[in-house]
Amino acid sequence: MTASSLSFRLAVLFVVAGMAMGIGMAASQDHSIMPAHAHLNLLGWVSLFLFGIYYERRPALNASRTAMVQVVLWSVGTVVLTVAVAAIHLGYTAADPIAAIASLVILAAMLIFAYFVFRPAPVVEAGPTMRMTAAE
Ligand code: HEM
After folding, report:
1. Segment 29-66, tens digit of pLDDT
2. Which residue from 41, 48, 50 has its CB within 8 A of the most atoms of ligand 1, so it is best to mutate?
3. 33: Cβ below 6 Å to ligand 1?
4. HSE (CB half, 13 Å, CA atoms) of 60?
5. Which of 128, 127, 123 lies closest to 62 in space, CA to CA?
6. Which of 40, 48, 96, 102 suits a disulfide with 18, CB 3.0-4.6 Å?
7. Is the CB of 17 under 6 A from ligand 1?
8. Tens of pLDDT along 70-86?
């Protein structure tokens, strides 16, 4: 499996969970876990899907183990952070250090991604829509 297909699959699973959480909040009229819902959707759906698009456009990076590690680290961090943030907002303040560790894992994953973006001369493959044909 490539990093992009893993990103897309996990992103869809995260948004289904995030939407269920949102519907649960709305139905119960208890919005106390709203920060967990927001983080799950923005880290797990929006960011992960964007990573997937970036990787899909760079086939060598997409097939690399480091990109896979980045996606896995990000996803594990997102799950742990979501659970810990929900626990904190439900009154289990003991989850605070867990949220702190998860946030550092997510930061590490973002730093790996930053390395991919800033390293010299990344190869960008032209997609079909970017190919130019000579004018007649
Ligand atoms: C079935 C789909 C969804 C439902 C039913 C839902 C429901 C909710 C509810 C009830 C709140 C709490 C609002 C409040 O207390 O002020 C909320 C907040 C939030 N939701 Fe969702 N949501 C859904 C999908 C999403 C998605 C897909 C995203 C992001 C891509 C998202 C991002 C957010 C954010 C960022 C907040 C916090 C807003 C604030 O700070 O005021 N939600 N959502």
Report:
1. 999 999 999 999 999 999 999 999 999 999 999 999 99
2. 41
3. no
4. 6
5. 123
6. 40
7. no
8. 999 999 999 999 999 99
Rounded distance between C-alpha atoms, residue 97 and residue 24, angstroms: 26
**Tens digit of pLDDT for each residue in 96-123?**
999 999 999 999 999 999 999 999 865 5
Ligand 1 atom closest to 35 (CA)? 37
Q: Is 41 in the pocket of ligand 1 (CB under 6 A)?
A: yes
Rounded to a whole number of angstroms, the distance between the first and last alpha carbons of the chain is 42
- Name the residue at shortest CA distance from atom 27 of ligand 1: 41
Q: Is the distance from the beta carbon of residue 98 to the nearest atom of ligand 1 less than 6 Å?
A: no
The pLDDT of residue 135 is above 90: no
